[in-house]
Amino acid sequence: MVQDNLGWEPLKTLGSLDQSAVGTDRTILISDAGEVYAFGKDCFSKSKSEVQETKLITTPQRVKSLTEIFVVQAAIGNYFTAVLSREGRVYTLSWGSDERLGNDTDHSCSLPQPLLGALENIPVVQIAVGFCYLLALAIQPTGMSVYSVGCGLGGKLGHGCDDCETQPRLIEQFGFLNIEPVMVSAGTLCVDDLFCF
User: Fold this and answer.
1) By the 8 A CB rule, do 84 and 76 touch?
2) Which residues make Cβ contacts (< 8 Å) with residue 187, sequence separation at least 6?
3) How many Cβ atoms are within 10 Å of 83's Cβ, its own excluded?
4) What is the rounded distance in angstroms from the CA atom of residue 50 to the CA atom of residue 61?
5) Can you give the pLDDT at residue 7?
6) Strands annotated E in the chain
7) Measured between alpha carbons, how far is 187 from 197 in angstroms, rounded to an integer?
8) Distance (Å, whole) CA 80 – CA 173
9) Angle value at C-alpha 166, between 84 and 119, nearest 5 degrees
10) Which segments carry the RCC repeats (predicted)?
């Protein structure tokens, strides 16, 4: 096996890589064929209320639950992972408890759940996730728009309040300001383990 001077081994079997996503506990790679590979912890989220038994995956492994979806982008949050399909559909894996992301799955769910509601028939071109929320850049007949869903603590969903949204909701302020967004980005700020947004 050939190694560079840092000890890294080349990934020979993945083909060309189109995109990567990095989280605190795992990394996701997407091939030019839309295949998803992951390594790090073997889960797609962290549980807030219980200790989750996980094992470490030390080499990229194909994510079997995503083999039927041609993935073009992935984003890793703390409580969930999201992927975007070539058809413009958003899927989330885990953290659907209490219907925070429009589905009612538990933190250990590794099956992709389509993000329904307002985005069900609107193509999405980019996603971004923070600690506990998701932003989606979508194509509307009038131009680009941004939808948000998840935890609204600190007003980060862009709706003029700090309410949580269980279904994707259009951020209307861009239209009021006559601004057409061209990309989305999200982040995480943790003051301590109990206060992250």
Assistant:
1) no
2) 130
3) 25
4) 26
5) 44
6) 17-22, 26-31, 36-41, 56-62, 71-76, 81-85, 90-93, 113-114, 124-129, 133-140, 143-150, 165-170, 190-192, 195-196
7) 8
8) 26
9) 40
10) 34-87, 88-140
Give CA angle at 102 (97, 106), nearest 5°: 20
Q: Distance of alpha carbon 157 from its chain centroid, rounded?
A: 15
Task: Kindly tell me if the per-residue pLDDT of 127 is higher than 90.
Answer: yes
Both structure tokens of 189: 């700020």
Tokens of 116: 């329904």
Closest-CA residue to 129 (of 155, 147, 108) = 147
Identity of residue 23: G
Q: How confident is the model at residue 195 (pLDDT cuts 50, 70, 90)?
A: very low
Give the residue carrying structure tokens 């807030």.
48
